[in-house]
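Hi there,

I know you've been waiting on this one. I reran it after we fixed the sequence typo, so this is the corrected version. Both the input and the resulting structure follow.
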Amino acid sequence: MAASESTHQGAERTGHGGGLKPTATRLRRALQLFMVLLVLAIGVQFSRFAASCLDPRLPAVARPPGVGGFLPIAGLMGLRHWLATGHLDAVQPSAAVLLLLALLASLALKKSFCAWLCPIGTLSEWLWRVRAKLLPRWPAHRIPRWLDRVLMAPKYLLLAFFAFFIFVAMPLRALEAFIEGPYNRVADVRMLAFFAHPSALTVAVLAGLLLLSFLVQNAWCRYLCPYGALTGLVSLLSPLKVRRVDEACTHCQACTRVCPMHLKVHELGPVRSPECTACLLCVDACPEPAALVVGPGRGLRRPRLALAALALVLLVYFGGIGLAMAAGHWRNGIGREEYLRIVPPAMQRYPVRNPG
């Protein structure tokens, strides 16, 4: 583990030939920080929106559509509805849009949504980096490989359950009734209430997940996240995979030591695994500029690779949001008057304080 940390830190310090050159790791972490701040801003605005619906005397605050990113089930339902009818629903359209963009990002550059954009993935990574500072001698691969593979099953089982229920077992008419129904119209408000005033069990579960992510690298992403399971399966079709060029490789294993998903990059050609998140830590850690590339043919190399990866992720995700806004598929069709009627009953057990 110490060797892993020193290899990675050395790669970041040097930038492979220029201390000021942008590495993929630096750019990715800058985008991660931006996404965390953006999510916090959305959370504050959504809380103010709910508070203004509870007390009409407060200034009216618009509901931020980005809150749909926290409704993956609504997003999956909206995606199925769109595939079946050609139309996005008007209740939680941003949930379906954000899920679709996460899948497109994974199709373009492996499971890049998880490593570049997802705030839960970022939190998990931050916890592990704190652990590396506090417990530098803690080995990175404490879980046996066979057990590691067994523990990956739950996220795929959860994905299979939701996919079967939404795409197979649920008739389209029932799906449309649920989408338009009272529960889905305030699903985001109920989510806010759930986390604003959690039960003791909820606090214990969240604390357990945080501790698990502190002790086991990327535990939530690796073992429990069905969203990540879906993006990982889609990423198998991505043409932009990390690829090891054998004739340029010195087999130093620096790439394998820094891989957060415990992939043996030094033994692979193209990294096809659905667990690869395109974090590009392996590329930054590699001492040979031509040994790890991304894409077919000669592929992309440092430093162009770092800028290209950032540009591609930004283009797919934020470009897609811009297109959804222009097409009128970003904000929902629920008016202020309806929210004033439906939010108070949904929040009656969980009063939300206006944060300012």
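Quick highlight: The chain is about 60% helix and 0% strand.

Best,
R. S.
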